[in-house]
From TrEMBL:
InterPro entries: NADH-UbQ_OxRdtase_51kDa_CS, Nuo51_FMN-bd, Nuo51_FMN-bd_sf, Nuop51_4Fe4S-bd, Nuop51_4Fe4S-bd_sf. This is Unannotated protein. Belongs to the complex I 51 kDa subunit family. The keyword Membrane does not apply. Keywords: 4Fe-4S, Iron, Iron-sulfur, Metal-binding. The keyword 4Fe-4S applies. It comes from freshwater metagenome. Transmembrane segments: none annotated. The lineage of its organism: unclassified sequences, metagenomes, ecological metagenomes. Residues 343-388 form the NADH-ubiquinone oxidoreductase 51kDa subunit iron-sulphur binding domain. Signal peptide: none annotated. GO terms for molecular function: 4 iron, 4 sulfur cluster binding; FMN binding; metal ion binding; NADH dehydrogenase (ubiquinone) activity.
Length: 466
């Protein structure tokens, strides 16, 4: 299920450093005993030995990018909270629900103490009073292992009052979600934590850093983002930025699914590894299944615009992938080989997003449903040529203007930079249109082959020959 992992934190396999997956090969990797035997909680000790502002500066200097989708630097985000306003909270987004994404689940299942240590470092550095760890409802094993790890960490004195004999105190609360995709959006997650229905809030005024959980300043970070912090505290920003590139330092976890020989989760060098490396090298996926030809791939989770083999040599670098018309998003690549039924693949993704709409925005609630209905008709061989134009019309009612894609010229459209415009509060509505647009732009002929060809039959009016 996974690639090859090293034995100790930061150990290098070949030329690939391991920052967050170094314990994965141990059968007991999720236990406190194993964590302590592999330098666990040493990063916390190192952080607590320094002033909090220095720890914050270290994270800012390292440019630890968010691994949840937006890629916003964690240290910069921490600095957005208003000064002198307390209490302030850390909310951990463990509601990993983007199609094709399962890296955070593995981090919580296999190394929960690393996440907990990252939470503690973040709370110390940013002056956060309490941490809320929100885990997706379907991740039963992750919930269980994080719960046990929290209990063990409390008992060992790593969480609670006067941690490790210092004046630093913090509590971590575990919260299980109910399985709603929209809760991956940070303000919807906060609504859910407060006991409300998970629906996104309007921004402004509800920017979490200023007005978040219970109306207090709140930092929302992704699981993998926080899991980087223990290694960073032990090794320093200079060692961290020596990996990857200046704009994309460190490593990142990537989940690969679909038509490859060895799907799984791999920790890769950020900004350097290309899509071709990941899909074809033996140390990663080893090529396309049955040695088929690659047809298309989704580079950043189900909501990302699709790529074709022409983009294989792009590196995992946010700005370059964005300039090409897509995004790295949640770190999930879905691979489609030459046998893929493209209209059916697009329908599968669109149906998911239509179903997951919270209903708050009319363009998303109605538009996603209509996209699914029209596309279903086309896939079933009952559509008309007008349906294809209707798909674009409905889609652009959700995303006004041209949808970003490097190959939009095939439809006479002009590519625009990512992120796209939207008539909705959050990204769920545009996500329903992303696969439709990509499939139509890149493979319109497959849709046209499904269209019912209706021929007019001449009819002679009664009495016309008289």
């Amino acid at each position: 299920m996974t690639g090859t992992y090293a034995h100790a934190p930061g150990f290098i396999v070949g030329d690939r450093p391991k920052i967050v997956t170094s314990r994965f090969e141990y059968e007991d990797s999720y236990t406190l005993t194993r964590y302590l035997a592999t330098d666990g909680y040493q990063g916390l000790r190192a952080a607590l030995s320094r002033p909090a502002n220095e720890v914050h500066d270290e994270v800012r200097t390292a440019t630890v990018l968010g691994r949840g989708g937006a890629g916003f630097p964690a240290g910069t985000k921490w600095g957005l909270t208003p000064q002198g306003v307390y209490p302030r909270y850390l909310v951990v987004n463990g509601d990993e629900s983007e199609p094709g994404t399962y890296k955070d689940r593995l981090l919580m299942e296999r190394d929960p103490h690393q996440l907990i240590e990252g939470c503690l470092i973040a709370c110390y550095a940013a002056g956060l009073s309490q941490c809320f760890l929100y885990i997706r409802g379907e991740m039963a094993l992750a919930q269980e292992r994080v719960a046990v790890a929290l209990n063990d960490a409390y008992a060992a004195g790593y969480i609670g009052k006067n941690i490790l004999g210092t004046h630093f105190s913090v509590d971590i609360v575990l919260h299980w979600g109910a399985g709603a995709y929209v809760v991956g959006e940070e303000t919807a997650l906060i609504e859910s934590l407060e006991g409300n229905r998970g629906m996104p809030r309007l921004k402004p005024p509800f920017f979490p850093a200023a007005n978040g959980l219970y109306g207090q300043p709140t930092i929302v970070n992704n699981v993998e983002t926080l899991a980087n912090l223990p290694w960073l505290m032990c090794n320093g920003a200079e060692a961290y930025t020596a990996i990857g590139t200046k704009t994309s330092p460190g490593t990142r976890m990537v989940a690969v699914s679909g038509h490859v020989k060895r799907p799984g989760v791999y920790e890769i060098v950020n900004g350097v590894t290309t899509f071709r490396d990941l899909l074809y090298k033996d140390e990663f996926c080893g090529g396309i299944r049955n040695d088929n030809e690659l047809k298309a791939f989704v580079p950043g989770g189900g909501s990302a615009p699709w790529f074709t083999p022409d983009q294989l040599d792009l590196p995992f670098e946010g700005s370059q992938v964005g300039a090409a018309g897509s995004m790295l998003g949640s770190g999930a690549i879905m691979v489609m080989d030459e046998t893929t039924d493209i209209p059916a693949a697009a329908l599968t993704l669109t149906r998911f997003y239509a179903h997951e709409s919270c209903g708050k925005c009319t363009p998303c609630r109605e538009g996603g449903t209509w996209l699914e209905r029209i596309l279903s008709r086309v896939v079933d061989g009952k559509g008309t040529s007008a349906d294809l134009e209707q798909l674009i019309e409905v889609g652009t009612s959700i995303c006004p203007g041209d949808f970003p894609h490097a190959s939009n010229e095939k439809l006479g459209l002009t590519a625009v930079p990512f992120p796209y415009k939207m008539n909705t509060i959050c990204f769920v509505g545009p996500s329903a249109y992303a696969p439709v647009n990509s499939a139509l732009v890149l493979f319109r002929e497959e849709f046209e082959a499904r269209i019912v060809k209706r021929h007019t039959i001449p009819v002679t009016a009664v009495g016309a020959a008289l």
